[in-house]
Amino acid sequence: MTNNRKMFDRIVEWVGAELDSPDSVKFIFCSSNEEFASAGSDVAVASSYKFTPEIFSGLTGLKWLHFGATGVDGILFPELIESDVTLTKAVGFHSKVTAEHAIAMMLYFERKFAESIKFKETRKWSQREIALRNGTLSGKSLGILGFGAVGQALSEMADVFGMNVSVATRSSKSSDLLPHVNRIYPSSGLNELIAQSDYFAVCVPLTKETKGVINRERLSFMKESAIIINVARGAIVDEPALYQALSQKKIAGAGLDVFATEPLPEDNPLFELDNVFLSPHVAGNFGDYTHLAATDFGVNLQRYLSGKELRNVVDKSLGY
Fold first, then answer.
1. Within-domain flag for 9
2. I need a surface site. Which of 27, 175, 188, 318 has the fewest CB within 10 A?
């Protein structure tokens, strides 16, 4: 999970705390991709935030790969997909904080935080100007694309704020069976969901089907007063089309934590827009992330050692 030796030792401690017999497991520290690839055919389990075909080709005895983040789109190369190696991912423990980040972005726009930041910078009292423009999330419609762990956490939080939540998902469940959701749209109803949303949040995994799904045409269905929020993957949204919609004020704004190219280049025109909130792919991060990720892996490792079914298994053919 890390190329830092001190952090590796702490991770081993955290993982070991979840094992019945930690001394029976050999943990191997790899500080580079080359070391990782040469770890040997006796490596049955690997856990990492990065994984390449070169590493995979060296681990000929690998049975289970655990990815330390939620989005696995960056490691689903053909060799891994076609193999018998089980792939799991970290999920659940950082879903709420990602949803919190999405809510924070909505509040940034709704409560005109940009104007309050400007007030601090200029020291010019602007109470009346801001007060007249301030809004509330209560009563606003939130459309969510994707109803995995993040989408579910976001719907719950939005419900607390009094928002009317609708989702677009492959699930065949009725909205009566999904708490905090007023209406469910099938994938074919995505345009309708977008059109009725005051806030539209992208929470779906990046797959072949979702890459570029929020394109120029779909952005055209958004209200001029609507805000798009993306805490999933940048490639799901057509970034040039989004920039055009924002710069021409065809939509009111965007809260973006993820981008088509990361790190976001310094000359990216999104930086010049005054109706965009940007954060550098940190929505799912917090101080205890590594500790909880290691604990999550440790619990699953004990299941593996006990011959039990693993949790959070990825369907490699679907990409999530």
1. yes
2. 188
